[in-house]
Write a structure and sequence with these properties.
Order of helices and strands: HHHHHHHHHHHHHH
Structural class: mainly alpha
Radius of gyration: 20 Å
Distance between the termini: 36 Å
Number of helices: 14
Number of domains: 1
Number of strands: 0
Strand content: under 5%
Helix content: over 70%
Length: 278
């Protein structure tokens, strides 16, 4: 009987979150518009930021520290930067979103996970537009038109769900432990270099015998980085015209599902008392 009540309650909470989709959409659109409203170049910054990053990193890793890739390096780099920037910006800004919206949280009761979800949704709009602008580049320059494009929604969906899960956890943690946002900033800096964005994963295997042996176990751990699997899927589809590796998709799906369930359980237990800690 207790299990039945628990399941019903969990399903009810999921329905409540889904029933507030209009609020999520409204907050996401407001965040998207406010972000660029006072900027002279406006929405152009959606693509300018990753392009500027691409130019700097291309200069460094094409001419100073040469990293061999099978495609033009700027295209290779931008294909990794777009999903990374979506995740990192959402997590960096979303970590303190509940605290920043403390007035709304104190005045109204609603499922608290709506706040980080709306932050992710606002940046997701940004990501989709930037991806659509980037899409013709590899398809025409690399001639990677193929049936593999049908798989593109898979890494997009996994990226969105993974980002929502870790942002939700960071947001909840920050409501109780205000050092979380600073931990997230430090984590993102390390995480960037531990993700194959400006280098292919195959490059790491060439480091055997070049770097100290005790470092190699840490290098090999990069394969367990969910963002590595997600970026690999994007590159397989867009740069090679091949379907994503099943191992990458399954691993990211398992990790993402576990994080989503964990964050949902935590919000269900601690959500009602978040306002007391603001």
């Amino acid at each position: 009987m207790t299990m039945a009540i628990g399941k019903t309650s969990y399903l009810h909470d999921l329905k409540v979150v889904f029933s507030n989709r209009d609020l999520i959409f409204s907050l996401a659109v407001k965040d998207f518009k406010v972000r660029y409203r006072s900027a002279t170049l406006g929405f152009l910054w959606m693509l300018l930021n990753p392009v500027l990053q691409m130019l700097v990193l291309s200069l460094v890793f094409s001419f100073i520290v040469r990293i061999p890739v099978d495609v033009p390096y700027p295209i290779f780099l931008l294909c990794g930067l777009l999903p990374w920037n979506f995740m990192s910006m959402t997590l960096g800004i979303g970590a303190s979103s509940l605290v920043n919206e403390r007035n709304l949280v104190k005045k109204l009761y609603f499922p608290r996970e709506i706040i980080p979800i709306s932050v992710a949704a606002g940046h997701f709009i940004n990501f989709l537009i930037a991806l659509l602008l980037f899409l013709p580049v590899p398809l025409f320059f690399l001639k990677t038109w193929s049936w593999a494009l049908l798989f593109l929604p898979i890494p997009i969906l996994l990226l969105a769900l993974f980002t929502i899960s870790i942002t939700s956890l960071a947001t909840l943690s920050d409501a109780f432990f205000r050092d979380t946002r600073f931990i997230v900033e430090a984590l993102l800096m390390v995480w960037f270099y531990a993700t194959p964005i400006f280098y292919p994963y195959s490059y790491l295997t060439s480091l055997t015998g070049v770097i100290p042996r005790w470092i190699m176990p840490f290098v090999n751990m990069i394969r367990f980085n969910p963002m590595a699997g997600i970026i690999s899927m994007f590159r397989n589809i867009l740069l090679k015209g091949e379907p994503p590796r099943l191992a990458d998709g399954l691993y990211v799906l398992i990790i993402t599902t576990a994080l989503l369930l964990f964050s949902f359980i935590l919000y269900r237990r601690h959500g009602p008392i978040i306002a007391d800690h603001m």
